[in-house]
Amino acid sequence: KNWQDFLWIAYALAALLVMALIYFLIQRKNKEPEPILTTIVKQPAHIIALEKLDNLRSQGLWKTGNIKEFQSELTYTIREYLENRFEINALESTTDEITRSLRQKDFSTAHESALKEILQIADLIKFAKANPPEDIHESFLDTAVRFVEDTKNIHSKEEIIVIDEHGNVVTNSQSISHE
Q1: Shortest CA distance to 102 belongs to which of 120, 83, 74, 124?
Q2: Given 48, 118, 167, 172, which residue has the most CB atoms within 10 angstroms?
Q3: Which residues on neighbouring strands pair with residue 42, listed in sequence order?
Q4: How high is the pLDDT of residue 15?
Q5: CA distance between the termini of the chain
C-alpha cells in the first residue's frame, strides 16, 4: 500500500474539521446576547421631596413674578411626596380626596390642616388667579419642608433596582438607611 490508499482518511478528517468549524460559527452566531441590565437607585420619598423643595427655594420663582409656576412646582412636589410616602393617588386627586385618603392612613390632623392650607391656596393662585401676599410663598415652602420632615418614614431605605431591557425587574434590594 502507498500513501494514496490512505488519502480518503485525510479527506474525511478535513471534512470533519470543516463541519466542526461550521457548527462552531453557527452556534456563536445564534448565541443569545448578554442582557442589557440597568441599575436604578430609588431614593426614599422624603429625600426626593426635600431635594426638590431645596431646588425650588434656590430658583426663587416667586421673587421673579413666576408665582403660578412656583405654586405648581410646590404642589406637585408635595403631591408626589404624598403618593410615594403614603401610597395614595395624590397626583390625580383633589385636595379633599387627598385628605380623605390620608385619614385612612392614620394621618395626623395637625399635618392635615397645614397640607390643606398649602394645597387650597395654591389652587386659588393657579386657577382663580388670586394674588396672595409676597411673604406667603416662602412661608409655604418652609411649611412644606417641615411637613416632609415631620411625616417622613424614618425606616425607609434606598432601594437598588436592576431591570432588563424589557423593563422586567431582575433584582430589588435595599441598601442604605436615610434618617
Answers
A1: 83
A2: 118
A3: 159
A4: 95
A5: 90
Count of other CB atoms within 10 angstroms of residue 48: 17
Q: Are 41 and 163 in contact, with CB atoms under 8 Å apart?
A: no
SS (H, E, C) the chain: CCHHHHHHHHHHHHHHHHHHHHHHHHHHHHCCCCCCCEEEEECCHHHHHHHHHHHHHHHCHHHHCCHHHHHHHHHHHHHHHHHHHHCCCCCCCCHHHHHHHHHCCCCCHHHHHHHHHHHHHHHHHHHCCCCCCCHHHHHHHHHHHHHHHHHCCCCCEEEEEEECCCCCEEEEEEEEECC
pTM of the model: 0.71
pLDDT confidence of residue 47? 93
Task: Say if strands 169-177 and 157-163 run parallel, antiparallel, or are unpaired.
Answer: antiparallel
Q: Report phi then psi at 175, rounded to 5.
A: -125, -95
Q: Is the dihedral of CA 161, 162, 163, 168 positive or negative?
A: negative
Residue 128 has pLDDT above 50, yes or no: yes
- What's the confidence (pLDDT) of residue 173? 62
Residue 77 CA to residue 144 CA, distance in Å, equals 9
Please say if the pLDDT value at position 179 is more than 60.
Answer: no
**Pair 152, 46: CB distance under 8 Å:** yes
Provide the pLDDT for residue 80: 95
Cell numbers found for residue 106: 392614620
